[in-house]
Amino acid sequence: MTFVKVNNPIAKNLDGFVNDIFNEFPATFGRSFREDFLQFPPVNIVEKTDAYQLEVSAPGWQKESFNLKLDANILTISAEKKEEAKDETIKVVRKEFTNKSFKRSFTLDEKIDGANISAKYENGVLNVTLPKKEVVKPAAQEITIQ
C-alpha cells in the first residue's frame, strides 16, 4: 500500500487547531472556571463561637492592594492590580500567573457586629473576622398579680 500525501488547507488548519488545543491543554483546561471567567478568588467561610471567619485565597497580592468596605449590611472585598512596567529585553514564552483585579460582596445579617470587623493578610490568605453581636437576653422580671 502506498501513502499519498494530500495538501488540503482545511485539514492542515484543523491539524494545527487540534495541535494547539493539546499543546495548550494544561494552561487552557487546568484553570478553574471560577478563576478564568468569573474572575474572583475562592473563599472559605468558617463559623466560630464568637465570630465568622472569611478566608480569601489570594496569593501573590500585597496587603495594600486590598480594599474592604462595609456599606449598610454589604461587605465588599476588592483588590486592584496595578500594571507593572514591562521590560522590553525579556521575552515571555508562556505566562500562567495572573492576578486579575476582583470584587466580591457578601450580605451580612443582623448577628454581625459591623463596627469591629478586622482583616489580616498572611501567607497568601486574607482573613476577615466578622465578630458576632452579643445576644442580649432580657433580664428576668417579676410580674405582679393584681
Oligomeric state: single chain
**Which whole number gives the mean pLDDT?**
77
Label the overall shape: rod-shaped
| CATH-defined architecture of the largest domain | Sandwich
Cross-sheet strand order for the largest sheet = 1-2-7-6
How many structural domains in the coordinates? 2
The number of helical elements comes to 3
Mind summarizing the main beta sheet? 4 strands, antiparallel
- Structural class, judged by helices and strands? alpha+beta
Q: How many strand segments?
A: 7
Beta-strand residue percentage: 25-35%
In which range does the helix fraction lie? 10-25%
Low-confidence stretches: none
> What are the secondary-structure elements, in order, as H or E?
HHHEEEEEEE
Question: What's the CATH first level of the largest domain?
Answer: Mainly Beta
CATH topology of the largest domain: Immunoglobulin-like
N-end to C-end Cα span: 113 Å
The radius of gyration computed from the alpha-carbon positions, rounded to a whole number of angstroms, is 26 Å
